[in-house]
Amino acid sequence: MMPQAPLCRVSREHPCPVCGKPDWCSVTADGGFCVCMRVAEGSRKRSANGGFVHVLREDRGWRRRPQDRVIRVGTSKPCRTDLDWLDRQCRQAVGGSALQNLADSLGLTSESLGRLRVGWDARRGAWTFPMVDHAGHVLGVRLRFPDGRKLSVTGGHEGLFIPDGLDYSRPLVIAEGPTDCAGLLDMGFPSIGRPSCSSGVRHCIELVRAHWPLDVVVMADSDPPGRRGAESLAIALLPYARSVRVICPPDGIKDARAWKLAGATAADIRKLIDGASLRRLNIGAVYHG
Question: What is the pTM for the complete model shown?
Answer without folding.
Answer: 0.72
